[in-house]
Design a protein that fits this description.
alpha/beta; 4 strands; 4-stranded mixed beta sheet
Amino acid sequence: MPKLTLTEQTPGFYTLEGSLTFASIDKHTPQSFKFLRGIDRVCIDLSHLQASDSAGLALMIEWIKQSRMNRVKLSFKNIPEQLLALAKLSGLDDSEYFTSRDASTSLPN
């Protein structure tokens, strides 16, 4: 299973690569929340994910929680259909984070 990698492309814009699954998320993954500090807006592009599952959705929800605590405007771009389906099953599809719109407009140019 490919390792989960979060890479900053430009300030506030990240790409997530690999697998967002139970197998790729470990006890050290919560340390990745440090990217949610010291910035007003963060956008995470999920277009490079190879696989995702409910553990990935749980991690995204934790990122949302941490972003709110740090007063960071968080958005996701290119959410895979599988994650959107899981969000819908969980009743999260109406939230601003899991709508199918392209979040790329959420960040200033």
